[in-house]
């Protein structure tokens, strides 16, 4: 599928192309305009839209926030908009991009479509914004957030080689839990902690986290590991060619019909030809270090997802194991008990992801690398959780 937003202006392509080729990222020049527009859009939300609109939508809460929390609020607004936008775009591309759907295992590693490049550009534009915000407010949010921004931008930018262009929409779907995580944070700040709205949002957050990050993420990780292993075998085979020059791997990668010969209209022909458009840059195969970078990053991200989910389960089990005080006059309703469990588990997830962003998990920049925005920044969740358990202003009580 061709890029829905079209090609960049000629002057911008000419400006970016020398740097893109120097960085071994030829597809970057095709999506430079989208990176710039995405960055400008998110920066506009942070600097103008959120400060103007938030006092109108939350007049009792936003004006009373501290300067630091207002900055945090604006960042969460951007994160919420970005996660909703990019998830919707990724799902749409996965549904309508026929060339992507028809890719073979090797083409999923070396191939390219403009629509997948668009998803990549939107993500990179956000990570550029995230990097700038992290650098400007490093005294507020710490070095961990800056390391996360750098590593996420670096890992995701490697897809412009192109490499794993097919998987750009696939792994963006990790972000499906982020809107609910941001909403959880906002509900705290507008004094709706413990509300039924936060309970419903918490249930959606935990369900989405489990389905997208654990089930979907694990399955897709296995598939991408298999594809990359096959690509490495092709690369090593080409490098050990008995000829003086290494063999070209593309003969075993792209279908002969990728030239568009089987199409009946020009759009189809162009879209099919685009899959192998950058084959000259991938003819030598995929570098081993690049595969290792993605495998290590993905394994660490999956480990963190399972770690955070285990912490949520631990929080839930602790609630069941803790002896409850008997009160014959006012026995605790099951729905109230369930609400406490869900809210505490959601708060635990926010706490753990916030700790990563603040650098409190003591991970190196390479370990933090993922290309996936891990969501909320948080401020003092342990205190909030204690207050939640103490007061519990539950609906219907």
UniProtKB/TrEMBL annotation:
GO terms for cellular component: endoplasmic reticulum; membrane. The chain crosses the membrane at residues 35-54, 75-95, 110-129, 136-160, 166-187, 199-223, 289-309. Keywords: Membrane, Transmembrane, Transmembrane helix. SMART domains: TLC. The keyword Ribonucleoprotein does not apply. GO terms for biological process: lipid homeostasis. This is TLC domain-containing protein. It comes from Penicillium cinerascens.
């Amino acid at each position: 599928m061709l890029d829905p937003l079209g090609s960049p202006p000629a002057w911008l392509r000419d400006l970016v192309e020398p740097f893109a080729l120097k960085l071994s990222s030829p597809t970057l020049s095709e999506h430079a305009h989208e990176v710039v527009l995405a960055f400008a859009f998110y920066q506009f939300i942070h600097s103008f839209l959120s400060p103007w609109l938030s006092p109108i939508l939350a007049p009792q809460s936003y004006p009373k926030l501290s300067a630091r929390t207002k900055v945090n609020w604006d960042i969460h607004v951007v994160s919420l908009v970005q996660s909703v936008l990019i998830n919707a775009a990724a799902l749409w591309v996965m549904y309508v991009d026929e060339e992507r759907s028809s890719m073979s295992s090797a083409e999923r590693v070396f191939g390219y479509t403009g629509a997948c490049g668009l998803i990549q550009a939107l993500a990179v534009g956000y990570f550029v914004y995230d990097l700038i915000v992290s650098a400007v407010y490093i005294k507020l949010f710490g070095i961990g957030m800056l390391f996360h921004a750098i590593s996420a931008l670096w890992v995701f930018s490697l897809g412009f080689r192109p490499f794993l262009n097919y998987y750009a929409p696939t792994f963006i779907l990790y972000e499906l839990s982020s809107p609910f995580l941001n909403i959880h944070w906002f509900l705290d700040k507008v004094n709706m902690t413990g509300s039924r709205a936060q309970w419903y949002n918490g249930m959606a957050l935990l369900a989405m986290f489990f389905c997208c990050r654990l089930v979907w993420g694990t399955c897709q990780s296995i598939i991408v590991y298999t594809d990359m292993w096959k690509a490495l075998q092709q690369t090593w085979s080409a490098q050990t060619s008995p000829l003086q020059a290494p063999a070209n791997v593309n003969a075993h990668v792209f279908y002969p019909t990728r030239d568009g010969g089987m199409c009946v209209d020009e759009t189809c022909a162009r879209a099919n030809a685009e899959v192998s458009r950058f084959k000259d840059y991938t003819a030598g195969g995929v570098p081993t270090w690049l595969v290792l970078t993605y495998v290590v990053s993905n394994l660490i991200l999956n480990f963190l997802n399972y770690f955070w989910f285990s912490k949520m389960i631990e929080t839930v089990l602790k609630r069941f194991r803790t002896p409850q005080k008997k009160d014959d006059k006012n026995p605790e309703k099951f729905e109230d008990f369930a609400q406490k469990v869900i809210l505490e588990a959601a708060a635990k997830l926010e706490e753990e992801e916030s700790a990563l962003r603040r650098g409190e998990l003591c991970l190196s920049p390479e370990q933090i690398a993922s290309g996936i925005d891990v969501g909320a920044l948080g401020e003092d969740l342990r205190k909030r959780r204690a207050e939640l358990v103490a007061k519990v202003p539950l609906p219907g009580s």
